[in-house]
From TrEMBL:
SUPFAM superfamilies: Cytochrome c (SSF46626)
Compartment list: Periplasm
Main location, first listed in the record: periplasm
Record-listed heme c 1 binding positions: 32, 35-36, 82
Species annotation: Photobacterium frigidiphilum
Domain of life: Bacteria
Post-translational modification: Binds 2 heme c groups covalently per subunit.
Residues annotated for heme c 2 binding in this entry: 135, 138-139, 182
Keywords: Electron transport, Heme, Iron, Metal-binding, Periplasm, Signal, Transport
Signal peptide positions on this chain: 1-18
UniProt name for this protein: Cytochrome c4
Length: 205
């Protein structure tokens, strides 16, 4: 019964997230362009592409950046740059921005040949001996994630950004993942594996 209630609550929250106004979001997105690009496809590798991302996921991250600022970093997602950017945003602003950027097409990336073998193995199969789950379990075989479950689209994402996030999850510097799933996986990955996996995901289509 508790599981059913949790699922219903999650579905309800996602339906609320999806109600943003994309046109209103476009008008509010000017300040986002400096890092994320006018079309949501950042050309600076350390920043994420947000074009085509699930609106619920975008909105969740915006809310958690703000939560970290208002709780002194004890909750939410800590990031000094994004924290400062979101403080003036209302929930409606966040919903509108999420609707706008999710409506844009994400640009494609490529995977270096040197990263395919290790990256593909970890992504599709994981490593049972070390207790590493496959990425497909949450993000899907094409890296598209699932909107209703809250798992983000990672296909085509900037490899450097993915690498930075995996490192932050590994060190628990980022800890806003559901049930600490990303922290658990990243904690078992080596530097080389993180690099290969990040580059593989970047070119996954």
């Amino acid at each position: 019964m508790k599981k059913l209630a949790l699922i219903l609550a999650l579905l309800a929250s996602c339906s609320v997230w999806a109600q943003g106004d994309a046109e209103a979001g476009k008008a509010k997105a000017a300040t986002c362009a400096a890092c994320h690009g006018a079309d949501g496809n950042s050309i600076m590798a350390q920043y994420p592409k947000i074009a085509g991302q699930h609106p619920g996921y975008i909105e969740k991250q915006l809310k958690e950046f703000k939560l970290a600022m208002t709780t002194g970093g004890t909750q939410g997602r800590n990031d000094p740059v994004m924290g400062g950017m979101v403080m003036a945003l209302s929930e409606e602003d966040m919903s509108d921005l999420a609707a706008y950027f999710s409506s844009l097409p994400i640009s494609e990336n490529a995977t270096p040949e040197s990263s395919i073998k290790v990256g593909k193995q970890l992504y599709n199969v994981g490593d049972a001996e070390r207790g590493i789950a496959s990425c497909t379990a949450c993000h899907g075989p094409r890296g598209n994630g699932t909107s209703l479950s809250g798992f983000p689209k990672i296909s085509g994402q900037n490899a450097e950004y993915i690498k930075l996030q995996l490192e932050k999850f590994r060190s628990a510097q980022r800890n806003n993942d559901m049930n600490s799933m990303m922290q658990s996986v990243a904690a078992k990955l080596s530097d080389d594996e993180i690099t290969s996996l990040s580059q593989y995901v970047g070119g996954l289509h």
